[in-house]
Write a structure and sequence with these properties.
With 227 residues, the protein is mostly helical. The chain is 52% helix and 8% strand. The strands form two sheets. Strands 1-2 form a two-stranded antiparallel sheet. Strands 3-4 form a two-stranded antiparallel ribbon.
Length: 227
């Protein structure tokens, strides 16, 4: 008899609950179904009835079980009763799709309004990654603090504040914490995406380390500095 059955029902239930909790809290540590170990054994799934809760089997046994499951599903799809039940499920699923979509949209909108700095951080990182302009030395914590500060200033003053790229990404500026500053929205709009914007009140390209200057603009920046 398998050692799992030597324990009491209460103990099995307790261990099963603990195991399910561990699986939920550690998604990155879980093996995927079909993962092949160094010794050639294939991972079938998790179960509290096996050593360490992991069910491993030989490759041929795994393939046999997989083929059996596929054949079982193929025959099930030919069953008129199953097909009728599946059609009803699909009808009900799509009949309620509009309501689900509306609820999802409301939930997303609420989250976006409550987490503006985090949303801006995610979208900014996504844009820069897409353009391959995320600097390897960028400090994400500094950027997050700046976005929280911009959000706080917006609430305090009633004027929208943005975290802006001093040298715009559009013109090759890096997404780096030293190429970021907080600007009131009207100032940011007047600055637009000009890489040659100069200000005595706010930071401009002269405040950015030369190592972060885009190569095509270096000569122009040095010429402006020398005048």
């Amino acid at each position: 008899m398998h050692p799992w059955f030597n324990t009491s029902f209460t103990e099995r239930k307790k261990r099963h609950a603990e195991f399910k909790k561990w699986l939920k809290e550690n998604p990155l540590l879980r093996y995927k179904h079909g993962y092949v170990r160094e010794d050639g054994k294939v991972f079938c799934g998790y179960s509290t009835g096996y050593a360490n809760g992991e069910h491993w089997t030989e490759a041929d046994t795994f393939e046999r079980r997989l083929a059996h499951a596929r054949e079982k599903m193929r025959l099930k799809r030919l069953d008129p009763k199953y097909r009728a039940e599946f059609r009803d499920y699909i009808k009900n699923h799509y009949k309620n799709a509009d309501m689900r979509n509306r609820k999802t949209a409301i939930r997303k909108k609420k989250w976006s309004q409550e987490n503006k700095p985090r949303l801006a951080l995610k979208s900014s990182s996504r844009r820069t990654l897409k353009r391959n302009l995320l600097h390897p030395d960028h400090n994400l914590l500094i950027e997050e603090k700046m976005r929280n500060a911009a959000d706080a200033l917006t609430k305090q003053t009633g004027v929208e504040h943005h975290v802006d790229h001093i040298i715009p990404i559009k013109h090759g500026g890096w997404h780096h914490h030293e190429n970021l500053q907080i600007l009131p929205a009207p100032v940011n709009q007047s600055k637009s995406s000009s890489p040659f914007w100069v200000s005595s009140e706010y930071k401009d390209f002269r405040s950015v380390p030369q190592s972060l200057w885009p190569e095509p603009l270096i000569d122009f920046y040095l010429a402006i500095q020398s005048t």
